[in-house]
Write a structure and sequence with these properties.
2 domains, globular, 481 residues, 2-methylcitrate dehydratase PrpD, 2 iron, 2 sulfur cluster binding, two-stranded antiparallel sheet, 8 strands, four-stranded mixed sheet, alpha+beta, 6% strand, 60s Ribosomal Protein L30, Chain: A
Length: 481
């Protein structure tokens, strides 16, 4: 009698079948993916304004010739190093897209692996991947990460959401580099058996810069695993999720199985409903709170008053914001501040803006008014906001500010249910998203340079989707550093 290996876990089979067989037919998903691609590249370019990003993405060993191009630099790398570099750039400012559910995350993080792998394959293997191929891969990566996040909370068991970045990137990249369905399952099984990232670097007292390069690390790991399967018979771990005691569910998920009741099949739902960060580089649960604070700043000016006239502020918010960004006490660094709702509201109330620079030490430590105003704020959980947050037909991210002044005046509560990057505000948001991309390109390559003009022209050309991805990335090479 022979012992047969178990069949692969159903989820791994379903993901592999989706990657290799499902055809993306939704025009809305593809159009949204195009905007997402441009926005994500723009966010990556903007990150290069900060020295630490250069220090992190520069490879520890000499980079290769004719490798994948890293946008906004003159670096060339293999796709494993390249996916780390681009993934880190994309996530650094917390300004790329967002998905909120039982788990949170940023599906465009997967572009770190998608773009660099397609680009490398074109240059080295002679493939002909185009922007259209990138968009279709994006839709699938978004879908895998987002659907698994809908009902499965990794943060509740102390794991970071980049586990889903690694899984989605590994799935999509496996097809890009020529793996078959069985090999994709093999790669996915190794992605799941890894020791997964703990969430501790996102929370006090351990908040730090790792949260800004964790996605790059995840995409890099995913690409490495896919290539390892391609070059060697490393074998599958078929019941990596379900085997008793040793499997992921028992060992890392407290015995719970993943559920997909809301959306039982992978299609294109996530890209169609993705959230864009348009106005503010801020953790997404605070986007509407910051928008409300900007409104309050204008109201105070109209009354001839300012932040010094504020006695107290009540922030009504969702349960997720209470758990992630309701912070009291000292904030030690950039990473602490851009995940503190009180800080993100204080800055616009004082200065009438919120930019990435406003999280820097020079601003935080030289303006005592920020902490004075933070101490006047209290967050309260609103049950209806929380219910609407989880409602798949609404996906609201509501916040409300109630401000009382020192003279006893209570201003009308300012409620913002949907941020400008929400699907319900697409007509309003997309023109601003394109302006955001244009701004980031001009900041990196110059306002009036031929390089800037060409990038912007190509990005809006009617034949954009037909352009080979390597030719497009060539346009982003920094001629002079």
């Amino acid at each position: 009698m022979t012992n047969k290996r178990p069949q692969p876990d159903k989820l791994l089979q379903d993901i592999s079948t989706y990657i290799h067989s499902y055809k993306i037919t939704s025009p809305l998903a593809i159009t949204t993916a195009k905007f997402c691609l441009l926005d994500t590249l723009g966010c990556g370019l903007a990150s290069l304004n900060y020295k630490q990003v250069h220090d992190i993405i520069n490879p520890p060993f000499p980079y290769i010739q004719n490798g994948t191009r890293i946008p906004g630099t003159n670096l060339q790398m293999d796709p494993i190093q390249g996916s780390f570099a681009l993934g880190t750039m994309i996530r650094w400012l917390d300004f790329n897209d967002c998905w909120l559910a039982a788990e949170w995350g940023h599906p465009s993080d997967n572009l770190g692996g998608i773009i660099t792998t397609m680009d490398y394959c074109n240059r080295i293997n002679g493939t002909s991947y185009t922007i259209k191929d990138v968009l279709h891969a994006m839709v699938k990566a978004h879908e895998i990460q987002g659907i698994l996040a809908l009902e499965n909370s990794f943060n509740e068991v102390g794991l970071d959401h980049v586990i889903l970045v690694k899984l989605a990137t590994c799935a999509v990249v496996s097809k890009i580099i020529g793996l078959n369905e069985t090999q994709t399952i093999e790669a996915l099984s190794h992605a799941m058996v890894d020791g997964q990232s703990l969430r501790t670097y996102r929370h006090a007292p351990n908040t730090g810069s790792r949260k800004s390069w964790a996605a790059g690390d995840a995409t890099s790991r995913a690409v490495r695993l896919a290539y390892l399967v391609k070059q060697a018979n490393i074998g599958s771990i078929p019941s990596v999720l379900t085997v008793p005691k040793w499997g992921f569910y028992d060992a890392s998920f407290r015995g719970k199985y993943f559920t997909m009741k809301q959306r039982p099949n992978f299609q294109s739902y996530v890209m169609e409903n993705i959230l864009f960060k348009i106005s503010f580089p801020a953790e997404f649960h605070a986007q509407t709170a910051v928008e409300a604070s900007m409104i309050a700043h204008k109201q105070l000016k109209q009354l001839g008053k300012n932040h010094n006239d504020i006695k107290s502020i009540r922030i009504r918010t969702q349960d997720a914001a209470m758990r992630i960004i309701d912070k009291k006490g000292p904030l030690y660094n950039y990473a602490d501040r851009d995940h503190c709702i009180q800080y993100m509201c204080a800055i616009p109330l004082i200065f009438g803006q919120l930019t990435a620079d406003d999280y820097m030490d020079d601003i935080a430590t030289k303006n005592p008014d920020i902490d004075l105003l933070r101490n006047k704020m209290v967050c309260v959980k609103d049950e209806q906001f929380t219910k609407d947050y989880y409602d798949p037909n609404k996906r609201s991210i509501a916040n409300a500010l109630l401000i009382e002044l020192n003279d006893g005046t209570i201003l009308d509560e300012i409620i913002v249910e949907y941020p400008i990057g929400h699907k319900f505000r697409r007509d309003e948001g997309i023109p601003l998203l394109l302006k955001k991309f244009e701004r980031h390109v001009k900041q990196r390559f110059g306002s009036d340079t031929l390089q800037t003009q060409r990038i912007l022209q190509l990005s809006t050309d009617e034949n954009f989707e037909k352009m080979p991805i390597d030719k497009f990335l060539d346009e982003f090479v920094m001629k002079q550093e």
